[in-house]
Amino acid sequence: MNPYQQGQSGYPQQPYLHNIGFSNTAPQSFGNPMPMAGFPTMGYPPPQPGYSAASGYPQSSQPYPQQNTGYPPSQGYPNSAQGYTQSSQGYSQTAQGYPPSAQGYPQSAQGYPQSAQGYPQAQTGYPQASPGYPETNKYQGYPPHNESHAQSQQTYSVSSNPVANTTKSKPTVVPVNPFDPREDAAVLRKAMKGFGTDEKAIIQVLTRRSNEQRLRIAFEFKTLYGKDLVSDLKSETSGKFEDLLVALMTPLPQFYAKELHDATAGIGTDEDVLIEVMCTMSNHEIHVIKQAYTAIYGTLLEDDLRGDTSGNFKRLMTSLCMGNRSEDFHVDQQKAREDARSLLQAGELRLGTDESVFNAVLCSRSFPQLAAIFQEYHFLTGHDIDDAIKAEFSGDLEKALRAIVKVVRNKPLFFAERLHKSMKGLGTNDRQLIRIMVTRCEVDLGDISNMFHSKYGETLQSWIEGDCSGHYKKCLLGLLGLY
């Protein structure tokens, strides 16, 4: 289903789809990176105080600056101009069309004559859309697109890595700009029209667009040709290449929801998928995934997780599913010391293990706070928290707790290990490979690739080339920016 057709005939109302991804605090692929006519601009920050939503001009609640009282109030600027505020509100002094020397006009220039320097003749009464205000100032107070992208990436990284205040994640797929979805739709139509398929054209379009942009292309494709792009792609391709293209064309919340559903549906449970998704998502991402899950399957994610897991692992999944981790990134060293002592007393210093203490600490503390707790634990015991978890726990609960520790310390390394595991040995876990490549390419796949090379001494590219083939391999390399 195309996300922009919600509420139409045959499609249920799904309000969460107005947010194609997650939020400004999530990876760039989870928000709308560019302002597009008719669609929500999720990639821009909220309007700054003092600016009207329509024109970008200051509100009329503050009086005109006192230093301009030397000009007769009845001449030049009428009373309706009292909404003009000082440049400290967000207007750069050079962006107004007034030269710096305009701050002090001679007294003889009574009433702002039409010949006054820096004032266009058509602007004597502060008309709407005056030439003195360039159109580029429409979004004053908003960062440029590339800065918004960097801020989005950095904000998400802070929620997952305590050292992200000084580092920025490296995506391998970024929104293309300028972006013409109709032109891309025409390219895809031509690639699939008639006999044969131009797979190269399909790969080069879809691996060089963000998830949100791919959805725009699908929307325009149906508008122009009356056909569903995903259906056409499925009819023209097959195998793992088809699976990868369908994953690329799925909105990320829906994609995560489907992965979680398939992991719990049927006989048996794929706990690795539950751990990979639930232990790495931020609060807001978990809430949006839960919304998508209920909209698609009609059941609660929490209920399905509880129904397919058991014991302490079920309790851990339930806690993570609440999406209630602290997001206060100030580190309280005293509380970290207390939590480290609590973990020590609940594990190594007693017969048996009090799993509830580990559950409470690892599911509720912020990632920077957890990093401080792990340091205090090492200081108290002389060994790493990871070693203690290996000694005290087993099975899926051990995997999940260790996954949280790894994500806190180095999320790209966690995914690098997952990628290595998916291609190691005989056969390939293609579903895991596709999931990580598709969901991380707009977030930190560049960092993951670097960590892969650092840990295993071989490049991620060489492993993909050795384990995959055909257009499937080329499409994966395209997501790495190498095709």
From TrEMBL:
<dbReference type="Pfam" id="PF00191">
    <property type="entry name" value="Annexin"/>
</dbReference>
<feature type="compositionally biased region" description="Polar residues">
    <location>
        <begin position="149"/>
        <end position="170"/>
    </location>
</feature>
<dbReference type="GO" id="GO:0005737">
    <property type="term" value="C:cytoplasm"/>
</dbReference>
<keyword id="KW-0106">Calcium</keyword>
<dbReference type="GO" id="GO:0012506">
    <property type="term" value="C:vesicle membrane"/>
</dbReference>
<dbReference type="InterPro" id="IPR018502">
    <property type="entry name" value="Annexin_repeat"/>
</dbReference>
<feature type="compositionally biased region" description="Low complexity">
    <location>
        <begin position="1"/>
        <end position="16"/>
    </location>
</feature>
<dbReference type="GO" id="GO:0005634">
    <property type="term" value="C:nucleus"/>
</dbReference>
<dbReference type="InterPro" id="IPR018252">
    <property type="entry name" value="Annexin_repeat_CS"/>
</dbReference>
<keyword id="KW-0041">Annexin</keyword>
<dbReference type="InterPro" id="IPR037104">
    <property type="entry name" value="Annexin_sf"/>
</dbReference>
<feature type="compositionally biased region" description="Polar residues">
    <location>
        <begin position="68"/>
        <end position="79"/>
    </location>
</feature>
<keyword id="KW-0677">Repeat</keyword>
<dbReference type="GO" id="GO:0005509">
    <property type="term" value="F:calcium ion binding"/>
</dbReference>
<dbReference type="InterPro" id="IPR001464">
    <property type="entry name" value="Annexin"/>
</dbReference>
<feature type="compositionally biased region" description="Polar residues">
    <location>
        <begin position="104"/>
        <end position="127"/>
    </location>
</feature>
<feature type="compositionally biased region" description="Polar residues">
    <location>
        <begin position="21"/>
        <end position="31"/>
    </location>
</feature>
<protein>
    <recommendedName>
        <fullName>Annexin</fullName>
    </recommendedName>
</protein>
<keyword id="KW-0111">Calcium/phospholipid-binding</keyword>
<dbReference type="GO" id="GO:0001786">
    <property type="term" value="F:phosphatidylserine binding"/>
</dbReference>
<feature type="compositionally biased region" description="Low complexity">
    <location>
        <begin position="80"/>
        <end position="98"/>
    </location>
</feature>
<comment type="similarity">
    <text>Belongs to the annexin family.</text>
</comment>
<dbReference type="GO" id="GO:0005544">
    <property type="term" value="F:calcium-dependent phospholipid binding"/>
</dbReference>
<feature type="region of interest" description="Disordered">
    <location>
        <begin position="1"/>
        <end position="178"/>
    </location>
</feature>
<feature type="compositionally biased region" description="Low complexity">
    <location>
        <begin position="57"/>
        <end position="67"/>
    </location>
</feature>
<dbReference type="GO" id="GO:0005886">
    <property type="term" value="C:plasma membrane"/>
</dbReference>
